[in-house]
Amino acid sequence: MKTTLEILYLQQEDVLQAGLMDMDAVLEKVEKAYKMHGNNQIINPVKTMINIPEPNEEWKSRFISMPVYIGGDENIAGIKWAAESRNNPKKGQLPMGIDVIILSDPDTVAPLSIMDGTLITAMRTAASTGIAAKYLADKSSTVLACIGAGVIGRTTIIALKKVLPNIEKVQLYDINIDKARFLADELKDFVKIETASSVEEAVRDADIVTTMTTSKKPFVKHSWLNKATLFLQIGSHEACEDVILASEKIVVDDWEPIQKDPSMIFKKLLNKKIIDKKNIVNLREIVCGRLENIREKNEFIFFKSRGLGCLDIMVAKKIYQTAKSKGIGSKLKLWDTPKWI
């Protein structure tokens, strides 16, 4: 008797055909993941990372393992194998990040799908920032500053405009001015974007500031933030220490790995006892309703994300279900009949 095990394989084009670029749908799934995580329905271990070579700050490539189980009505297990190369952008032939996602049946442990996760990462990262802004931003905000015009910059502008429809203008800066101009032109029918000649010019007079760069050193000064009430940091190092210290609240997507990461400023501030971890809030506690009235008028809030695998798996499951129902993708066989049982 054959017990064939088939896996639905989804290449990047299949993932797109299955509706990944629907930011509203991705925002909905990411918000649900935060709620479920806050209600202890998700097992999301701290990601493991291999940097090549060490030390951490000087890596040229790295590989990240992000296993997850989502319970409740989702009931799915999965893992994202994320990889990044700093050499890829220099050569211009491959993306900096190349990710793969595997979904598995929690009961039989059989793999259900293998799919490209590179664009899922871009969409869920932006959606995570969007959900943070939904709960943390002053809803009257009209001017958004974005530092970084790469893939994440593109999706983040889309996500933030979706959750904050009052945004009238984006002040965009990238060290590569041509890239910033290209993105401004690409999204001109979605939101008004003005390119800035410096970081300081971009963030001054902005109500919300978001950064998504690969910089290894901080460069945004608090003295430049004359109007901002929310700073959303997607990259690791953009905000100078005085930005963090000036914030009345610090919110993060997952405090446990952030506080232990030696490359991030938070560990240094904790060691110096300049900040107290008791004052750090996980976003999931707000989204699930455990903490209410998080924003006070004119308060300055700092949000830092590091990336949660459960967001990837939640979005990937929706893509898998859509692809399966529409006959998208191709079938792979792990075996016809297992050799040993």
Give the structure's gist in a few sentences:
This protein is of the alpha/beta class. The chain contains 12 helices and 16 strands.
Write down the domain tally: 2
Strand runs, count: 16
CATH superfamily of the largest domain, by name, is: NAD(P)-binding Rossmann-like Domain
Global shape = globular
How is the biggest beta sheet arranged? 8 strands, mixed
Strand content: 25-35%
Which CATH class of the largest domain applies here? Alpha Beta
What radius of gyration results from the CA coordinates? Answer: 20 Å
* CATH architectural name of the largest domain: 3-Layer(aba) Sandwich
How does this structure look, described?
With 341 residues, this protein is an alpha/beta fold. The protein has two domains: 5-120 and 309-335, ornithine cyclodeaminase, domain 1 (2-Layer Sandwich); 136-304, NAD(P)-binding Rossmann-like Domain (Rossmann fold, 3-Layer(aba) Sandwich), CATH 3.40.50. The protein contains twelve helices and 16 strands. The protein has helices at residues 12-17, 23-38, 87-91, 118-136, 151-163, 177-186, 199-203, 241-246, 255-260, 265-271, 283-287, 309-326, and strands at residues 5-10, 42-43, 48-52, 61-70, 76-85, 97-104, 111-116, 143-147, 169-173, 192-195, 208-211, 230-233, 249-252, 280-282, 301-304, 330-335. Strands 1, 2, 3, 4, 5, 6, 7 and 16 form an eight-stranded mixed sheet that branches. Strands 10-9-8-11-12-15-13-14 form an eight-stranded parallel sheet. Helix 5 links the parallel strand 8 (143-147) and strand 9 (169-173). Helix 2 (23-38) crosses helix 12 (309-326) and helix 4 crosses helix 12 (309-326). The longest helix has 19 residues, at 118-136. The radius of gyration is 20 Å and the shape is globular. The model has no long low-confidence stretch (mean pLDDT 93).
